[in-house]
Amino acid sequence: MIDKLFSSVRITRTATREELTALDAEIGGLPASYRVFAEQYGTGLTNGMILIFMPFPCAAGTFQFEGSGLADILNDFIADWIADGRAPGELDCLEPYDKQSVGVAARYKDLVFFGKSENGESFCWLRTDDRYKFYALDRAFLSLRYGGDDLMTMIGDMQTDKVKAILGTGYKPLPSSFVGFA
């Protein structure tokens, strides 16, 4: 429930089931935890710095526009890397930070971007069969970090010292807040 994830909440606009069903059909599947977040919280600033894209026009941008924009940037980065004779997953090119991230770089075209931080990190999921795993990429796409199997849990983990494993050792626990956009 809302009071379990955030200590401070202000909701302005949430996604409708119809909007989520349309997005699901468009991109070929949505994690259940993304659906829950979009229906309960919607558009806003999560944990004081994270923007999760929604399937409707809002200040964070639409899922389709912002997500595909990040994918295009990543694809260009990887193309340059490959042109230089390197491969995704090597040092400084989606380098896996943890064992759960090993092998993800080889499937970079399957990553679905659903959010970004005000500091430039990107958030995505990867679907394998009927399971989704969530990841954080640093602002330069140099490294890839595992966030978990559930968006709500990942958001909660970033409010604890686990944020260091998800976003980097320079982070302190993020604020337990959700502020909806007007």
Q: Main traits of this protein?
A:
alpha+beta, 23% strand, 9 strands, 6 helices, globular, 31% helix, 182 residues, 9-stranded mixed beta sheet
Descriptive report:
This protein is α+β, with helices and mostly antiparallel strands. Helices cover 31% and strands 23% of the residues. It is built from six helices and nine strands; from the N terminus they run H-E-H-H-E-E-H-E-E-E-E-E-H-H-E. The chain has helices spanning 2-5, 17-27, 32-40, 63-83, 151-157, 163-166; strands at 8-10, 44-46, 50-52, 95-96, 112-117, 122-128, 131-137, 143-148, 177-180. Strands 1-9-2-3-5-6-7-8-4 form a nine-stranded mixed sheet. It starts with a helix and ends with a strand. The mean pLDDT is 93.
Summarize the structure.
This protein has 182 residues and is an alpha+beta fold.
- Determine the mean pLDDT: 93
Sheet with the most strands, sense and barrel status: 9 strands, mixed
Query: What proportion of the residues is helical, as a percent range?
Result: 25-40%
Order of helix and strand elements from N to C terminus: HEHHEEHEEEEEHHE
Low-confidence stretches: none
Alpha-carbon Rg, integer: 16 Å
Which strand order do you get reading across the main beta sheet? 1-9-2-3-5-6-7-8-4
Helical stretch count?
A: 6
* Strand element count: 9
Structural class: alpha+beta
Straight-line distance between termini = 22 Å
Any idea what the shape is? Answer: globular
Classify the beta-strand content into a percent band.
15-25%
